[in-house]
Design a protein that fits this description.
mainly alpha
Amino acid sequence: MKILLSVSLAVCASTILGCLLGVLVRRIPHRFHDIVMGFAAGVMLAAAMVGLLLPAFLAPRGIFMALPGALLGGWLVSCLDRLVPHLHHLAGVDQEEHRHNQGIGKVLLFVSAVALHKIPEGLATGVSFGTGEVGEVLTVAGSICLQNIPEAVVMVAPLFAIGVATRRILAIALGIGLTSMACVFGGYGLVSLFSGIAPLLLAIAGGAMLYVISDEMIPETHAHGFEKEATFALMAGVLLVFSLQALLGE
């Protein structure tokens, strides 16, 4: 239970930390943003494979639950994505339009988008406890925290642009962090109550993470002309996770 509480607090705190950095910096160079986000995408990609999908597939008869589960996870996030705008569109870095972008207050729309995109990540962190391995839990949680920081940093500028006060931005960050924290507990509750289908839940979480990485993170890092740097940063993130796994395994 201590690990669960620590992990959930870390997931919450990472979003708040990112917002604090965003308030201090206000604007960061695209090159730096893309490198950091690319690295975070690589860490998340490796974490999804090592911490979620691989344990799901290697479980007894796990393939029969893991394969459809991974596809289901991606499909569920895809459905969620149709209901809310892409974060990088609202941040002004691409031209993609979603049908619900109009007719809602900008602040409410933006906050809803960020919060809803945190649901699969928080659930994935909680579900990772179903592996029974602390190292894999920390791998998934660490990757989520690492991704939360730069994402929170870049969401601050659009909020300032539409006139949101600093104290309200920090309140928004706290609300989003608490949403992520609640989802961690929710994921843990699911895998505890339905331990018999843990491979299915792990695979759903892994598939959801793969979708977020491919649909959200990678396009965002390739939108400003620094895709080479972002690609090498992604590779570094993947290699870091696998290196840590190898060292911990010894």
